[in-house]
Amino acid sequence: MPPLTQWSHPAPFPTSTSERRGPTEYSGSVTSLPYSKTTASSSKPTASGNATEGPCASVSRLVASFTSSSPSATPTVPAQLAYECINSVPFNQSAAGKSIAKSFDYAHAAKQNLISEHKAVNIKNCPERMANADDRKVALMDSIRPYLDWQTTIEYLADPPAEYASKVQAPFDFWADWDGIYQKVMNGAYTSEYAFGWDLYRSFQKAHDGHFVYYPDSVTLIFSYGRTEPLVSVSGDGTSIPEVYAYSDVLASSFGNISYTPSPLVTIDGQDSTEWLLNFSEYGSLQDPDALWNNMFYLLAQVSLGPTGTGAGTFAGGGRGRWVYPGPCTTLGFENGTALTIDNFAKVQVPFDGITSGEDLYRTYFTPDPEDLGDAESLATMTSSSSVASSTSSSATSTSTIPAPGYPTPLVREKDNLNSGYFLEGEGYKDIAVLSVPSFVGSVEDERAFQAVNTYTINQAVAQNKSKLIIDVSANGGGTILQGYDLFKQLFPHILPYGATRFRAHEALDLIGQEVSHFSGLVPRSLKSNETVRDWVSTVFNYRTDTDVNYEPFDSWAEKFGPHAYGPAPDNFTSLIRWNLSDVLTTENSGGITVSGYLDRSNITTQPFQAENIVIVYDGYCASTCTIFSELMRQQAGVRTIALGGRPNKNPIQAVGGVKGTNDFPYSYILAAAAFPFEYQYLHDAAYYNTTALGEYNDLAILRSTNAVINSRDGIRKGDAVQTPLQFRYEAADCRIFYTPEMAVDQTATWKTVADTAFRGISHCVAGNFSSAGIGMTKRSTARKLGVRRDWDGREHYDVLRDGVWTGMGGVTVGGDGFMYA
């Protein structure tokens, strides 16, 4: 299936607060629109459909026209037209079932339940198991089900700690939601692929766990939605409760050449804007409500990541917002009485050649190739003759100094803007360095360059007598696990990272671990081994990989596996596991880097900054590897934290608002692991494994999704006897600072505000405080409002508003490799 792409809207962006903008309109069925204070649009809608043309045929025609005039751009169509098209894909497609049946061994297909939830099996050819219609309809859910055994948090979600439930997220019974969908399928309650896919998508999304993800193809493959007007939430003076504005108004105001005063937003589609935004934010992936609020808006750090960030915010169609149908239009009502009506759009993510109906869409994009369907046993024969290609990339530190929108010229930056270094300028700031880390990487070609940028920035800061460091992890949704460890070790080389984790203990994991551990005892643990050997020997499934909670080797797989009972249900988990950072095969799990302080980087022994002279700044998006780094910095090194933004109140907020799980496993990785025992059969034969949980795995769930992962590891804090996953611990930041209009357009204003608070005795905290003055800081002063820097150039922001995403970087690689990614 074609890859997913981040949306961008090529139409010019509106600069007025009294016009109606959007893609070509569709003259199909129109729902009632909310009351608008806007006068009639100055431009007449263009008819794009007719009485005899279905919605998918209209999309096909518009895409063809768009592509002929703009062949390099991604087509957009009216959101309503896209929504009608995707909803025309029927849920029950017998014709698709016949095409699958032709190339299947029917008995095996029925046994493994590989046929899609609505495809027919010729029962005359499978007397061994006469699969009934209800079995077939739920086959996709049955395919997903064994992968859920790896998810570590389901029981905690249903019965979380009281503080988490009151401050972060109410209890969520995933199994009740899952069973409800299952029964609706069995009862024939769905009429379209999209209706089923949306409920399935939401059952995972409502967990607000960025590692617990299933993207059905019917929801995420064909269209993504957006609005052409991003929003921003800012406090005019840094102390008053923030209000929401159109970002274009705040940007224009920053240039100082507009004839009007930006007015705050008060309604969206006739509803109170705060209430509307709070409700819409719940469609996001983050767990913390203040982080969800922030992610609705245009944030410089997210924009700096280009297509790998959440763009102009979830309201505008970035991140998870792109999967939510926004209606045909959105009406923004402002305090000054003006209104703006936006015609919402959909980005067409796949070719529409030859598509004239929902049935065509189904046959083209929702019917897996029969040759691709298989279970763990059949896939074992394929894995035995293939291996992952090694990287030959020579990616190095970028010499480019092109800044992201709103950022100053960097001292150094990684070519894809995954990290960069800066020195602040101006009286009182000249001893302060900034390390911007909006990502922890996720592609092997960027790993060494990312580490090099961190090392270079730190070394240059020390060489130029910078005594204080701001680490900005805004927008950091994670990346390679050991990059988080490496940055920590560059800053605190004398501290042994704790970082205890655990897996959920279940039959499939146990069988895989037994087989891999046996295999690993037959081959050398060496970088000289071939790639396939290194791949498996270095995995967590080998008990010789990792250490126990006391940083001692495990003696057997049984010792590593456990199981041990914890949690509200309780549930079974493995023994606590810690990374062995001096392991010769560490590079197999790090994308090729050696963690600082070990092996060929053992010369890094000097601490560059005192802990009290380091501050970490967050926008709430910190997740996965970012939370690992944050936990090490806060709990072991005692570094202080500042959280930005948040909902319109003055309560303390969390710094880390994303998933705090420490590893995600894609379904494809789990399936490969499940195939290993079938491939090698050291301890049992394939017939035995087919009677176990391993016999339940197949790839239908993978083929019918664009992204499918589970949270495979919990992070556990040192000394926690009851082993509550970090995911369910509430922790307020040391200080909360509101965004101001200047901070919304100039990242230097953010860093100087943080520097004032952390190092200069000028507090901007609206909640919390820094109890210690820090080295060289002896007083607390009243905060003063900071302006944008003198050399600020906001023109690239308009490119982002036009395109929906920043593209002024040297290429972006999306996705990861086989090394440990979180």
TrEMBL record:
InterPro entries: ClpP/crotonase-like_dom_sf (IPR029045), PDZ_CPAF-rel (IPR056186), S41A_metabolite_peptidase (IPR052766)
Pfam families hit by this protein: PDZ_CPAF_rel
Composition bias type Polar residues, residue spans: 26-35
CPAF-like PDZ domain location: 225-353
Residue ranges, annotated region (Disordered): 1-54, 387-410
Comp. bias regions, Low complexity: 36-48, 387-401
Name of the protein described by the UniProt record: CPAF-like PDZ domain-containing protein
Organism: Hortaea werneckii
